[in-house]
Predict the structure.
Amino acid sequence: MSIKTVSTQPFTDQKPGTSGLRKRVKAFQQTNYLENFVQAIFNSLEGYQGQTLVVGGDGRYYNRQAIQIILKMSAANGFGRVLVGQGGILSTPAASCVIRKNQAFGGIILSASHNPGGPDNDFGIKYNIGNGGPAPEKVTEAIYTYSKEITSYQILATEDVNLDKLGTSQLGSMQVEVIDSVADYGDLMASLFDFDLIRKFIASGNFRMCIDSMHAVTGPYAIEIFEERLGAPIGTVQNGTPLEDFGGGHPDPNLVYAHELVDILYGEGAPDFGAASDGDGDRNMILGRKFFVTPSDSLAILAANAKLVPGYSSGLAGVARSMPTSQAVDKVAAQLGMDCYETPTGWKFFGNLLDAGKATLCGEESFGTGSNHVREKDGLWAVLFWLNILAVKQQSVESIVKEHWQSYGRNYYSRHDYEEVDTEKANTLMTNLRSLLSTLKGKQFGQYQVAYADDFGYTDPIDGSISQKQGIRIGFSDGSRIVFRLSGTGTQGATLRVYLESYEPDVAKQNLDPQQALADLITLSDEIAQIRQMTGREKPTVIT
Ligand code: G1P
Ligand code: ZN
C-alpha cells in the first residue's frame, strides 16, 4: 500500500453554502472534484495526525463511492483512526453524537439533506468540528481558500474497505472501525427521554402514531427506537428502507413533499400523531390528527414544556432561533425569564451558544429543532420530545398547541419559496431591496407602519465574529415582519425565500388559516420587493 500524490487543478466553485458543499452528483463525479474538496478540508486543519475522524452519510447515490475515497485520503493524510457507520450510513445528528462520544477530531458528513438524490440529483459534503457541529465560517472560508489553490492531493493506493461488516481493519497505518450506525444515538435518546413512560403510553392502546422516514436515513433509527425500544407496532415506521434515490421522492418533511403522511393524518381514522424526517435525519415535521404544527411553534412548545422531560427537567439555560424563525419562542423565553438569541440562518451559528452553555434549545423555521445533546438539529429527537410531552400531558397535539397560543399568543407564520429563479434576477431583487432600506422606516402601507428595515448582521456573542448581509428584515409597529433572503443550499439558479409573520394575542382570532391571516403582508411583500415582476413568477413554488 503506497501513498500516491496526485496532481490536480483547482475548481472555482467549491464555496461551502449554508450547510457544506452541495452540487449535482455529476459535478462531484468530475475527475478529482471530491478529492480536491476533501484535501482542501484536510489542508485547512491542524493537529489531526493520529487523531480520529468520523465518516458517514445519508445513503444517497454516490455515498459509498465518496466514503471509499475519503477513507483512502484520510489514511494518506495521517489520520490515526476513522469511525464509519455501517453501510456508510450515519444520520447527521448521529454523526454529531458519535464525534462527541468518541472525542473525535472531527467528521465528514455526506449529505445534501432534503434535496432529492440519485444520479441526476444532488450530493453534498460537509466538515464538522470536534464539538460535533458544522464547521464555523472561518473554517469553511479556509476550506474554500485552499480549494482555489490546490495543486495535489494524497490518497492511499489500496482496495476498498468492506463497509457492511462491523469491526476493525487496517488501511495503511490508519485503523478503520465500521460501527453500528444506530446504537450510540439510540442510547443518547434513551438517556434524555422517559422511554418507560412513552412505552406505556404507546402500549395503552389509546394512542396511535405514524412515522415517515421518506426512504431516507432515519429508517433504521426510527425502527430501532420506535418499534423495538418503545414497542410501537411493526409498520409504525413507513418508508423505512433507505434508498439511494429516496424512492424518487423529495425527502423534505413539509406539507408538500411529505404528502403521503399528510394524507394519513388528515384522512379517515387518522392516528393521533405523525412525524416525518428528511434525507439526513436532522429535520422534522410534527402533525397531530388533522393538525399541522408550525416548526417555529414546535420550538416554542418544546421550550415551554421542557420541564416535563427528564433530560431538561432542571430548566433551560436559554433558547436560540434563526432570525427568520417566528418570535413565538421569544415569548416563552420572556415569560420563563431566560435569554433568547437571534442568529443568522444555518445551524453552525448555534454551536458557540451551545458550547458556552448560553442556550439549551435551538430551532429554525425550516423544520429544524435541537438541543445541547449534539451540535446538529435532530429530527427524531424532536419527535421523541413531543412523544414525551404527549405521554405526560395525555392531551391531543392540537389541544397542546391551542393552549400554548392561549397563554402566549399566536405567531401566524409562513414561508414562501420561489425556487430556481434566474440568479441575476434574484440578485437584482435583493440589491433593489437593499437600496430601499433607508427610505422605509416610518412609511405607512395600509394598516402597517414600518418600525425598522435593515439587512441582518450578527456578532457572535462568544467569539465576536461578524456575519453581515444575513437577510433583509422589514418590521412593522404591530410586531409583524417580512424577511427576504436568498437560499444558500440550492444547487440550481437562486431560491428566494420570503418569511411572513404576524402576532395575534386575541384567542378569538387565533383559528385562521395562516395564508388568510397573512394575506395583507403577502400582498405587501410583493408591493415592496416587486417579486412577481422581478422573478416572472405568479406564485411561490413551495409554501410552508
Ligand atoms: C436551509 C434552511 C436553513 C437550514 C439549512 C440546512 O438553508 O433555510 O434554515 O439551516 O437549509 O438545513 P437555506 O437554503 O435557506 O440557505
Ligand atoms: Zn437535513
Observations:
- The mean pLDDT is 96.
- The pocket of 1-O-phosphono-alpha-D-glucopyranose (ligand 1) is lined by residues 18-19, 113, 322, 345-347, 364, 366, 368, 487-489, 497 (CB under 6 Å).
- The CA atoms of residues 416 and 543 lie 5 Å apart.
